[in-house]
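Structure first, sequence second, as always.
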Protein backbone atom coordinates (compact mmCIF):
# COMPACT_ATOMS: atom_id res chain seq x y z
CA UNK A 1 0.00 0.00 0.00
CA UNK A 2 1.37 3.38 -1.04
CA UNK A 3 0.90 6.40 1.21
CA UNK A 4 0.17 9.63 -0.66
CA UNK A 5 0.39 12.97 1.08
CA UNK A 6 -1.64 15.76 -0.50
CA UNK A 7 -0.63 19.36 0.08
CA UNK A 8 -3.00 22.05 -1.11
CA UNK A 9 -1.31 25.42 -1.54
CA UNK A 10 -4.50 27.34 -0.89
CA UNK A 11 -5.52 27.84 2.73
CA UNK A 12 -9.00 28.99 1.71
CA UNK A 13 -11.94 26.76 2.63
CA UNK A 14 -13.47 25.00 -0.37
CA UNK A 15 -10.69 26.07 -2.70
CA UNK A 16 -10.43 25.08 -6.35
CA UNK A 17 -7.00 23.64 -5.58
CA UNK A 18 -8.58 21.30 -3.03
CA UNK A 19 -11.27 20.29 -5.54
CA UNK A 20 -8.59 19.49 -8.12
CA UNK A 21 -6.60 17.48 -5.55
CA UNK A 22 -9.69 15.44 -4.66
CA UNK A 23 -10.29 14.75 -8.35
CA UNK A 24 -6.68 13.61 -8.87
CA UNK A 25 -6.86 11.31 -5.84
CA UNK A 26 -9.79 9.47 -7.46
CA UNK A 27 -7.30 8.06 -9.97
CA UNK A 28 -5.06 6.46 -7.33
CA UNK A 29 -5.32 2.72 -6.68
CA UNK A 30 -8.09 1.71 -4.27
CA UNK A 31 -5.63 0.36 -1.71
CA UNK A 32 -3.78 3.70 -1.48
CA UNK A 33 -3.66 5.59 1.78
CA UNK A 34 -4.29 9.29 1.18
CA UNK A 35 -3.64 12.02 3.74
CA UNK A 36 -4.43 15.67 3.16
CA UNK A 37 -1.73 17.47 5.16
CA UNK A 38 -2.69 20.85 6.60
CA UNK A 39 -0.35 23.82 6.09
CA UNK A 40 -2.53 26.76 7.17
CA UNK A 41 -1.67 26.46 10.87
CA UNK A 42 2.11 26.53 10.44
CA UNK A 43 3.89 29.50 12.05
CA UNK A 44 6.38 31.23 9.77
CA UNK A 45 9.62 29.31 9.54
CA UNK A 46 12.33 30.70 11.80
CA UNK A 47 15.73 29.02 12.05
CA UNK A 48 15.92 30.09 15.70
CA UNK A 49 13.18 27.53 16.37
CA UNK A 50 15.07 24.55 14.92
CA UNK A 51 16.26 23.32 18.34
CA UNK A 52 12.90 23.78 20.04
CA UNK A 53 10.36 23.56 17.22
CA UNK A 54 6.72 24.49 17.72
CA UNK A 55 4.32 21.53 17.86
CA UNK A 56 2.95 22.52 14.44
CA UNK A 57 6.40 22.10 12.85
CA UNK A 58 6.85 18.72 14.55
CA UNK A 59 3.40 17.52 13.47
CA UNK A 60 3.93 18.64 9.89
CA UNK A 61 7.39 17.12 9.55
CA UNK A 62 6.13 13.81 10.97
CA UNK A 63 3.15 13.71 8.60
CA UNK A 64 5.33 14.42 5.57
CA UNK A 65 7.96 11.86 6.61
CA UNK A 66 5.31 9.12 6.81
CA UNK A 67 4.31 9.53 3.14
CA UNK A 68 5.74 7.62 0.17
CA UNK A 69 4.84 10.34 -2.36
CA UNK A 70 3.44 13.87 -2.36
CA UNK A 71 0.79 15.52 -4.52
CA UNK A 72 0.99 19.32 -4.60
CA UNK A 73 -1.91 21.35 -5.96
CA UNK A 74 -1.51 25.10 -5.82
CA UNK A 75 -3.06 28.32 -6.99
CA UNK A 76 -0.88 31.08 -8.36
CA UNK A 77 -0.35 34.13 -6.16
CA UNK A 78 1.35 37.09 -7.81
CA UNK A 79 3.11 34.87 -10.38
CA UNK A 80 4.44 32.53 -7.71
CA UNK A 81 3.34 30.02 -5.08
CA UNK A 82 1.36 31.07 -2.00
CA UNK A 83 3.40 32.06 1.05
CA UNK A 84 1.86 29.23 3.10
CA UNK A 85 3.15 26.65 0.63
CA UNK A 86 6.68 28.11 0.55
CA UNK A 87 6.66 28.17 4.35
CA UNK A 88 5.66 24.48 4.43
CA UNK A 89 8.48 23.58 2.04
CA UNK A 90 10.97 25.38 4.28
CA UNK A 91 9.71 23.85 7.54
CA UNK A 92 9.92 20.26 6.29
CA UNK A 93 13.37 20.78 4.79
CA UNK A 94 14.92 22.01 8.05
CA UNK A 95 16.92 21.85 10.23
CA UNK A 96 19.77 21.47 7.76
CA UNK A 97 20.37 17.79 6.99
CA UNK A 98 16.88 16.71 8.09
CA UNK A 99 14.96 17.26 4.87
CA UNK A 100 11.87 15.01 5.13
CA UNK A 101 10.97 15.72 1.48
CA UNK A 102 14.16 14.00 0.31
CA UNK A 103 13.59 11.37 -2.38
CA UNK A 104 9.79 11.44 -2.28
CA UNK A 105 8.21 11.37 -5.76
CA UNK A 106 6.09 14.45 -6.40
CA UNK A 107 3.26 15.59 -8.62
CA UNK A 108 2.74 19.30 -9.25
CA UNK A 109 -0.62 20.65 -10.38
CA UNK A 110 -1.52 24.31 -10.57
CA UNK A 111 -4.68 26.24 -11.22
CA UNK A 112 -5.94 29.74 -11.70
CA UNK A 113 -9.29 31.37 -12.27
CA UNK A 114 -7.58 33.20 -15.14
CA UNK A 115 -6.42 31.81 -18.44
CA UNK A 116 -2.78 31.61 -17.36
CA UNK A 117 -3.58 28.41 -15.39
CA UNK A 118 -0.98 28.89 -12.67
CA UNK A 119 1.85 28.00 -15.02
CA UNK A 120 4.33 30.24 -13.25
CA UNK A 121 3.44 28.89 -9.79
CA UNK A 122 3.86 25.40 -11.21
CA UNK A 123 7.40 26.10 -12.37
CA UNK A 124 8.40 28.03 -9.23
CA UNK A 125 7.30 25.03 -7.17
CA UNK A 126 9.19 22.63 -9.44
CA UNK A 127 12.40 24.64 -8.89
CA UNK A 128 12.09 24.24 -5.12
CA UNK A 129 11.30 20.53 -5.42
CA UNK A 130 14.45 20.03 -7.49
CA UNK A 131 16.52 21.51 -4.68
CA UNK A 132 14.64 19.38 -2.12
CA UNK A 133 15.58 16.26 -4.13
CA UNK A 134 12.05 15.27 -5.04
CA UNK A 135 11.76 13.44 -8.37
CA UNK A 136 8.84 15.18 -10.04
CA UNK A 137 6.54 13.66 -12.64
CA UNK A 138 7.09 15.57 -15.89
CA UNK A 139 4.10 14.44 -17.94
CA UNK A 140 1.31 15.13 -18.06
CA UNK A 141 1.80 18.74 -17.10
CA UNK A 142 -1.18 19.85 -15.01
CA UNK A 143 -2.15 23.46 -15.55
CA UNK A 144 -5.85 24.15 -14.98
CA UNK A 145 -7.15 27.45 -16.37
CA UNK A 146 -10.47 29.08 -15.52
CA UNK A 147 -10.89 26.75 -12.56
CA UNK A 148 -13.88 28.71 -11.27
CA UNK A 149 -15.84 27.51 -14.32
CA UNK A 150 -14.96 23.82 -13.92
CA UNK A 151 -16.59 23.03 -10.58
CA UNK A 152 -20.08 23.45 -9.15
CA UNK A 153 -21.01 25.00 -5.79
CA UNK A 154 -20.11 21.67 -4.10
CA UNK A 155 -16.74 21.69 -5.88
CA UNK A 156 -17.63 18.72 -8.04
CA UNK A 157 -16.34 18.78 -11.63
CA UNK A 158 -18.92 20.06 -14.10
CA UNK A 159 -17.01 18.93 -17.14
CA UNK A 160 -16.51 15.21 -17.89
CA UNK A 161 -13.30 15.94 -19.79
CA UNK A 162 -11.77 17.72 -16.81
CA UNK A 163 -12.90 14.99 -14.43
CA UNK A 164 -11.44 12.26 -16.67
CA UNK A 165 -8.18 14.15 -17.16
CA UNK A 166 -7.63 14.69 -13.44
CA UNK A 167 -8.42 11.06 -12.65
CA UNK A 168 -5.93 9.98 -15.34
CA UNK A 169 -3.30 12.22 -13.72
CA UNK A 170 -3.74 10.24 -10.50
CA UNK A 171 -3.41 6.97 -12.41
CA UNK A 172 -0.24 8.14 -14.15
CA UNK A 173 1.24 9.44 -10.90
CA UNK A 174 0.67 6.05 -9.28
CA UNK A 175 2.62 4.45 -12.12
CA UNK A 176 5.39 7.05 -11.71
CA UNK A 177 5.60 6.43 -7.96
CA UNK A 178 5.87 2.66 -8.47
CA UNK A 179 9.23 3.22 -10.17
CA UNK A 180 10.64 4.47 -6.85
CA UNK A 181 9.39 1.68 -4.60
Amino acid sequence: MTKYGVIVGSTRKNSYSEAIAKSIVKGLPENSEVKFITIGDLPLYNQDLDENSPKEYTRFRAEVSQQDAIIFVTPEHNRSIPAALKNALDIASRPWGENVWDGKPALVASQSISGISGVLANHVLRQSLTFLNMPTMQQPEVYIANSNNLFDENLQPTNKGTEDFLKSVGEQFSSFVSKFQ
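Margin note: The two ends are 11 Å apart (CA to CA).
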